[in-house]
Amino acid sequence: MEMRFRTLWLMSMALLGSIQLLSAAPANFQFREPARRSYELTPQIAAQGETDPLWLAATESGKKPRRVLFSHRLVLQLRSGAELLPLLKRHQLVIDRLVGDDLLIVVALDAFTAAKTANDLAGHVDVAACYPIMRKELELDNAYAPRPDDYYFKLQAYHEFRDGDGKAVGADINIRAAWPHTTGEGVTLAVADSGVQLTHPDIVNQQAAGEHHNFATDLDTGTPGALTASWVHGTSVAGLAVAEGNNAIGMIGTAPGAKVASWVIFDNALLRVGEDKLMDLYPRHSETVWVQNHSWSKGNRDDLVAPGLLEEVGIADAIENGRSGKGVVMVRSGGNYRTNGRNVSEDLYVADPRFIAVAAVNNSGRATSYSSPGAPLLVSAPGGEITFGPFMFTLDFLGADGATSFPIWLPGEQAQTMDLWNYRYDFNPFAGTSASAPLVSGVCALMLSANPNLTYRDVQHILALSARHLDTTDPDLRVNGAGFTLSHNQGFGVVDAGQAVQLAKGWINRPAAVWRTNTAIVNLTIPDDGYRVVISGTTLPSVLGYVTNLSSLGPHADESTLALPVVDVGLATSPIAQDLKGKVALIERGGADFSVKIGNAAAAGAAFAIVFNYVSGTGACPGGDQLCTLGGTDFTSIPAVFIGNTQGAAIKSRLSQQIETRAQLQMTSATVPFQITEALLLEHVGARIKTDHPLRGDLRITLVSPKGTRSILQRYNADVTPGPVDWTYFTTHHFHESSVGQWRIEITDEAQDATGSVIEASLVLQGVPITDSDTDGLDDAWENLQFTSLAQAPGDDPDTDGYSNAREQLMHTDPLVAEIPFRVDPAIWNPRLVRLSWPGVAGVSYEVRSGQNVTDLNSITTVPGVFPETVWFTTRTNLQHEFFQVRRLP
After folding, report:
1. Which of 1, 269, 592, 743 has its CA 20 to 30 A from that of 856?
2. Is the Cβ–Cβ distance between 520 and 672 less than 8 Å?
3. How far is CA 338 from CA 342, 344, 360, 372, 489, in A?
4. CA distances from 771 to 91, 790, 793 (A)
């Protein structure tokens, strides 16, 4: 649809900010509008009149009182056959404007007289309607929730991270865009953790009666085992999800209208209960408890961990029978062990496709320094950065109990913030995927409140479609075959509560999914030391005949590179002036962090970098030929490897003699292919691997789809146990791709000596059957209905509304029509600013115009488009302009 010249109008409400109602007992006025509606004035106003005779301040009665201004002008509608002049004379009214038959605008002496006259005429037999022309607060509160009155909302940056002028300064979950639609009413969320202090003022009214349980004692209580710092975790988690809102104290949770069930899963020694208890936990009260939050994982362990057989029974029960077959929504923290080399794929408590695996991001939107990466991650949310914050503001135990044992307060606000020791912030930080998970759990509660018919799979789809990547410099970002952007650091990106709720409201349930397993018994040898640096050139010394290495933690060459010229760039501690395009940077260890040195090489254009050890040193990784992990290189933008000093010095010597030397990263893998002919619109995909390899940690395992999307299932790691003996890895990176074509499982041994074979491999596909002759993931019937051909691609956007064909197919919307109305949504953001928003498309600019005359508007700014919503702020004092117009520029 052409939207270029469509315009959006907003009438100004300039005087709302200055309304001051008197504090005496109110008087009641009732008007016929034509429905009866009541308003409250004060006795002082009733007796004395308003100081401004043209406008009168009042409050509209009702569950949510709203401020209004009454004009001295009245809307008057007479019943058919009624005589007008006697009414005008009796009430001293003057005709201002005839609008239509029996409908007119009349003028009273002042605003108070107009209100009193409208009240008197409300019951007159000849009057169909009579009310003052009003300016209402209503129009500015319906698109974005008013700022809650919780005192510490200003410290909850994860909800809304903007500066005083409304500028976005960090990652948040856009929560105020969700709250106008729902705050989670009707949903109970269980926190399976260390218990919740149910007497906390921000929790006491949030309890789900009869839903608490201690699985260690088998008692129906949800209180922690002790009021010490070791037991406060569950209370902090619960606060982020469901803390009471708008109670003028403390904080507000993501879903403040939801109720919480506290499920204690630790005994007095803080040991997790046995799997028989967990078997009972998952399906517990699954008709009333719709969301479960599990902010726990396997911990800092090298090995592979999965739920036991009894737990599997409980999980299956909750998914298959919970919520009348729609499935309990279970949210899991992804783990805090990135710096230990751990991966989400190693923990089936998190990676299981029936769960929602959540990563953590810091204030910039980048995955935190601790958040475990992995292909099973679905989304991310703020979790606090342990190195520089901001930390997560949430609940502590009351008073001296819990994480803070002494009173604290904000500088300059001592009197108002003496209760700050009942909460956790910079002084007693709470950070981790334990914090990001309950934010997502709260969003899930909002979605189910908006649409209780959603299945657990629907919730996953909506979270994926509404999430967005805020760290556009993440080198791991990839676009899959369906046009969706994912990374192993965050899955589909940071959750957007506003967009998730909007999608949930109109969501049509996905058809039932099927599982298909394709197995190959191969007994295929895995080439030893399959990832190596190959040096080429004349008169190579023997030390360069075989160069072992350790890969960086960032990008990895999963296919062999070209053999490229090597350039010695020394320590590379500062920017490199030399053009390194199409070349390899040789870097000596020392002088700066690995990430800085590799970053300088990348900025100069290097294809990859070789870092070699210094002669000698101290610390955990000494010099010489010891191979070291390139720590802190998770987000470097080019592949890099670490080699020993002997080999590095030999390369350096050749280069100093101007002997041409080339280097290649060579990848040799065991590959298991699968040819799939059945068309499924994919969701989760798994790879079951059985090997006899003696060292699991030596292996890198990846899965490549027919569209070329590569999922990294296992990285080189520290596990010294055999395997994987029998393990199923899962990935979200093929969501909405077609299953048809050749898949490849590639297994690479990235260390010397220990050798083994792939015994058996299986490709496990979950998806909805479709007819897809062109294998693009768009159902043929849908494609032909919409476009009369199969020529469109899933990433195309023919109606230019920002929603791709793949998205529109899932949303059941017309890809040729922009269904979302192009209109301005105004909201009072704070006492000083008004927020205007409209549907936006990336790469498009929007012009904002304003003026007092609708036919004579002036351009005041141009705003770059942001999908799916573009936001602009203006001061409320600037609303002297009567109209605003927004239009999409060509």
Report:
1. 1
2. yes
3. 6, 9, 11, 4, 10
4. 73, 12, 15
Mean of the per-residue pLDDT values of the chain: 91
Among 330, 307, 327, 311, residue whose Cα is nearest residue 319: 327
Please give the C-alpha separations between residue 52 and each of 26, 56, 110, 111, 329, in angstroms, as whole numbers.
Answer: 19, 7, 9, 8, 56
Whether omega for the bond prior to residue 390 falls within 30 degrees of 0, making it cis, is: yes
Mind listing the pLDDT tens digit for each residue in 619-674? 778 999 999 999 999 999 999 999 999 999 999 999 999 999 999 999 999 999 99
From residue 199, alpha-carbon distances to 116, 223, 314, 316, 422 in Å are 49, 9, 31, 34, 12
| Tokens representing residue 545 in the block | 């005949």
* Residue 765, H or E segment: strand 756-769
For 649, the enclosing helix (H) or strand (E) is: helix 645-656
**What pTM was computed for the model?**
0.85
Structural contact between residues 150 and 247, judged by C-beta atoms closer than 8 angstroms: yes
Distance CA 69, CA 80 (A): 30
**Tokens at 404, concatenated:** 């803070």
Enclosing H/E stretch for 281: helix 275-281
pLDDT reported for residue 411: 74
What confidence tens digit (pLDDT) does each residue in 781-833 have?
999 999 999 999 999 999 999 999 999 999 999 999 988 888 888 888 888 89
> What letter does residue 155 receive in the DSSP assignment?
G
Cβ-based neighbours of 884, under 8 Å, separated by 6 or more: 8, 9, 10, 12, 824, 836, 848, 849, 850, 874
Flag whether pLDDT at 43 surpasses 70.
Answer: no
Largest separation between any pair of C-alpha atoms in the chain: 115
Where helices occur in 529-640 by DSSP H, the ranges are: 594-603
Token pair listed for 44? 């002082």
Structure-token pair, residue 425: 């912030």
Cis bond before residue 724 (omega within 30° of 0): yes
pLDDT above 90 (res 29): no
Cα–Cα distance, 411 to 531 (Å, whole number): 55
Q: What are the tokens at 70?
A: 């009454």
